[in-house]
Specification:
Blueprint lengths: L21 H9 L3 H23 L2 H15 L10 H16 L8 H4 L3 H7 L9 H13 L3 H4 L7 E8 L4 E3 L1 H18 E13 L6 E12 L6 E14 L6 E10 L3 H6 L8
Parallel strand pairs: 1-6
Antiparallel strand pairs: 1-2, 3-4, 4-5, 5-6
């Protein structure tokens, strides 16, 4: 082991090295700026190599940009990422709205049945949907019924015990989903104007044969003195199950994700003078 000391600027540079690295140690000790200059030259060479590679392969830069875009676009808010405070706020508001609205459409007789019995007692759908027909009908829910604003869904496309989840609420049961939508509609009709739904895509998933995935945007102005505006992009995954020749494919899980965080989406209600 060799130790070199440089008195340049009265600064001691102690370098412990094995004998085989002595020449490098000498250069570093005598010229403290050598490592910096060497690194600078290496970075310059690396940049020149990268530029030549980009000229030879024009797709390299665009591929990197595409990866960045894909990462950004795949960042959607989910229920398990939402803070407890936001969940509690939205759940409380939903309970207040439901308290003044209609009750569940479940009879006392149905409450005493098992899930299997209720499914068997349920009326058959008007058509037994195959996956392609289900995807087409879901698309119409967005474009024609505009259910995100109107709450107008076709319940026969859903299993009675489907699970429903968005970034602020999660629950089980078609009856709860319908009740939430029905009770919210009088409020929305009074306060929302110029509402619209833009459907970007709605198709069967290539990598999951039992899923329909939709990407959408909902916009609307609110009739409040401070004139807030809702502008929300999201995507919804409809997971379905084939219940046989008579009932066809029914949605068993509804999962909605937003491009904004739940807090940001709720915050739009407070943002003034947006229209």
């Amino acid at each position: 082991e060799v130790r070199y000391v440089s008195n340049d600027d009265d600064v001691a540079h102690r370098i412990r090295v094995h004998a085989g690295m002595a020449s490098t140690a000498v250069a570093a000790a005598v010229k403290p700026g050598w490592n910096v200059e060497h690194a600078r030259r290496r970075r310059a060479v690396a940049r020149r190599v990268a530029c030549r590679a980009a000229r030879n392969d024009p797709t390299a830069a665009s591929s990197s940009s595409s990866d960045d875009d894909e990462t950004a676009s795949s960042s959607f808010s989910r229920y398990d990422e939402t803070s407890g405070a936001v969940k509690t706020l939205v759940s409380g508001l939903t309970n207040i709205v439901n308290a003044f609205g209609v009750g569940p459409d479940v009879t006392d007789a149905e409450r005493g049945m098992t899930r299997k019995q209720r499914r068997e007692a349920r009326a058959l759908p008007s058509v037994a949907r195959d996956p392609a027909r289900l995807a087409s009908d879901i698309s119409r829910e967005f474009t024609e019924a505009k259910y995100l604003w109107t709450g107008d869904i076709n319940p026969e496309m859903y299993d009675l015990f489907a699970t429903f989840c968005d970034p602020t609420l999660a629950f089980v049961g078609l009856d709860t989903f319908e009740r939430n939508l029905k009770n919210l509609q009088p409020v929305l009709r009074r306060v929302v104007r110029d509402s619209d739904i833009e459907l970007y895509s709605c198709e069967l998933a290539v990598d999951a044969p039992n899923e329909v995935r939709a990407a959408w945007r909902m916009t609307g102005n609110l009739n409040a003195p401070w004139r807030p505006r809702i502008d929300l992009k999201g995507r919804t995954t409809f997971t379905f199950k084939n219940y046989g020749i008579d009932r066809g494919c029914l949605i068993v899980a509804y999962k909605e994700e937003w491009e904004l965080s739940a807090a940001e989406a709720v915050g739009q209600l407070l943002r003034p003078f947006q229209w």
